[in-house]
Each structure stands twice: as C-alpha cells, then as structure tokens.
C-alpha cells in the first residue's frame, strides 16, 4: 500500500502548479506535500515535476503519470463523496471570495442560511475587491460582477443587475435635474468601478464619460456619498433599494437606464468538486433564481 503514498499530493501539485497551493487545497503543510512527492519519485525512479523558483511543471514522465493517477484520485474522491451523500452531512471549510454591496447584503445572508442547514460546515467569506487566484489561494468559488476574462474558469450566472441613476434632492436643487445622459458632463458624478457609463439612448447602447469629486470601488461608500448630496450615482438598482423606499434619494434619467451586467459564481474547472462546494453553488443558484434587482 505504500506505493499509493504521494499520489494525491502529486495530482494536487500538477493541477495547481504550486506546492503551496496544493498544500492549502489538501489542508496540510507545504513540506509534507514536497516530502511525499520526493518519496513517490524515489519509488518510481524518475522525476515527475520540474521545479523552479517561480513555477512547477510536469516532466514528460510526470505528464504520463498524471493522466493515469488523476483518474485514481477522482475515483477515490467520488467514492468518499458517495458515502458522505448517504449520510447527508457536510463538513470541512467552504472558502469564498466576494466583493461589493450585493455580496455583503444578499450573498452573505444566503450563505448564512446554507450554513444553518449544515452545522458541521465552516464558511470563510473574504470580502475583497482584489481579483484573487482561486486555485493558488485555495478559494472554492468567487462571486464576481461584470465582464469575465479568465476563460479557464467556469462561470454560472447568479443574477442580472440592471442599472439605476439616483441623486439626493439637495444636490438636484442646487445643480438641476439632468434630462439626458449627455447633460452629465455638467454634473458631479460619483464614480464606482469606471467613469464610462452605459445608457440606452434611442434604442442603442451608448457610453457617456463622466467625472466627479468622489470615486470609490466600494458600493456602500458610493451610496453614502450620494446620500450626502455629493453627486449623481449610477449602479445596480438593488444598491439603492432602501434609500429609494425611504425617499432619501430620487431616480433620475430613468428612460435611459442601461441593462447593466450580471453577478456570477466562478469556480475552477476541475473534474472533482467537493460536495460542500457543489451543494453551496446549487443553493445560491436556486436562492437567486427569482432575483428581482428592483426588489
């Protein structure tokens, strides 16, 4: 049975191209992973991994061995998962990356509901606008908003996010109410992720470049700045739900609001996915299946 030692560690390194990332994935130390793979190479009598200071790659022998070994590991993981499914008991840690008001106010409570259903599970939610490397940093999935550029990841749509432009009545009394997006050049705009705002003008998507005195990539701070009458804000409708219902802010330019973009669940393209990850993703997809951005 000793001949099986190190195979799981080897497959993890082959897939993450990193000893430290593999260690995070397996929940052990980097030295343990390295030691197990060295012993595996000694038993096989060949080098499986080419190691440099920056990257780990498969040798020719390593590539051939990985093609066979990964099926063994996947089969073992699936067998373990089937046993867990019979018990319907989730455990371990679910590590999620997310950012923005949507994640804070809607995704986080949904994950709390999921956790309440599985008391043996732990969830780590990292709210950070930084674009994380899911594999290297050990995240199971991420909640992302907008255009997705990494084609190596799988993305499932969570919710459509149509836009809304709003302002505080005090600001509008001082500066006037814009009647057309082109008039925004004469206004102070509160900028979130970019200063190119997309509107629906005469049935076509058109970009209007805006500027203003306050800029932040945090939706809550954009909202706060707007309630302080610092300018016009333009973000997904749910951001302003409470402020509109409480008549703190008022909509502007409504005929021109754009379709916006979407929020996505993004995760690595791996043959095996732990049950806790798969069920959490399915739970969120179902939870937001009837999502109404206007609320």
UniProtKB/TrEMBL annotation:
<feature type="domain" description="HTH lysR-type">
    <location>
        <begin position="10"/>
        <end position="59"/>
    </location>
</feature>
<keyword id="KW-0804">Transcription</keyword>
<dbReference type="InterPro" id="IPR000847">
    <property type="entry name" value="LysR_HTH_N"/>
</dbReference>
<dbReference type="InterPro" id="IPR058163">
    <property type="entry name" value="LysR-type_TF_proteobact-type"/>
</dbReference>
<dbReference type="InterPro" id="IPR005119">
    <property type="entry name" value="LysR_subst-bd"/>
</dbReference>
<protein>
    <submittedName>
        <fullName>LysR family transcriptional regulator</fullName>
    </submittedName>
</protein>
<dbReference type="InterPro" id="IPR036390">
    <property type="entry name" value="WH_DNA-bd_sf"/>
</dbReference>
<keyword id="KW-0238">DNA-binding</keyword>
<comment type="similarity">
    <text>Belongs to the LysR transcriptional regulatory family.</text>
</comment>
<dbReference type="Pfam" id="PF03466">
    <property type="entry name" value="LysR_substrate"/>
</dbReference>
<dbReference type="GO" id="GO:0003700">
    <property type="term" value="F:DNA-binding transcription factor activity"/>
</dbReference>
<dbReference type="GO" id="GO:0043565">
    <property type="term" value="F:sequence-specific DNA binding"/>
</dbReference>
<keyword id="KW-0805">Transcription regulation</keyword>
<dbReference type="Pfam" id="PF00126">
    <property type="entry name" value="HTH_1"/>
</dbReference>
<dbReference type="InterPro" id="IPR036388">
    <property type="entry name" value="WH-like_DNA-bd_sf"/>
</dbReference>
<dbReference type="GO" id="GO:0006351">
    <property type="term" value="P:DNA-templated transcription"/>
</dbReference>
């Amino acid at each position: 049975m000793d001949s099986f030692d190190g195979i799981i560690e080897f497959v993890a390194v082959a897939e993450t191209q990193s000893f430290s990332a593999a260690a995070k994935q397996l929940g052990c130390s980097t030295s343990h992973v390295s030691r197990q793979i060295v012993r595996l190479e000694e038993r096989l009598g060949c080098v499986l991994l080419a190691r440099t200071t920056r990257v780990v790659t498969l040798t020719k022998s390593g590539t051939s061995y990985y093609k066979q070994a990964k099926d063994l590991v996947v089969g073992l993981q699936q067998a373990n998962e089937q046993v867990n499914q019979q018990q319907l008991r989730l455990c371990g840690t679910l590590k999620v990356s997310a950012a923005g008001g949507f994640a804070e106010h809607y995704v986080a409570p949904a994950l709390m509901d999921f956790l309440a259903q599985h008391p043996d599970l732990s969830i780590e939610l990292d709210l950070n606008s930084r674009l994380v490397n899911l594999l290297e940093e050990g995240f199971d999935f991420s909640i992302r908003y907008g255009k997705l550029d990494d084609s190596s990841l799988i993305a499932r749509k969570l919710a459509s996010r149509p836009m809304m432009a709003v302002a505080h009545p005090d600001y509008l009394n001082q500066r006037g109410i814009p009647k057309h997006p082109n008039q925004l050049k004469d206004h102070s705009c509160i900028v979130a992720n970019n200063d190119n705002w997309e509107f629906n003008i005469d049935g076509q998507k058109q970009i209007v470049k805006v500027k203003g005195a306050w800029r932040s990539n945090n939706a809550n701070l954009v909202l706060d700045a707007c309630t302080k009458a610092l300018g016009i804000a333009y973000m997904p409708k749910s951001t302003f739900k409470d402020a509109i219902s409480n008549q703190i802010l008022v909509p502007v330019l409504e005929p021109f609001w754009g379709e916006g973009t979407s929020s996505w669940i993004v995760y690595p393209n791996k043959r095996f996915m732990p049950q806790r990850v798969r069920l959490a993703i399915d739970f969120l997809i179902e939870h937001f299946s009837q999502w109404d951005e206007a609320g």
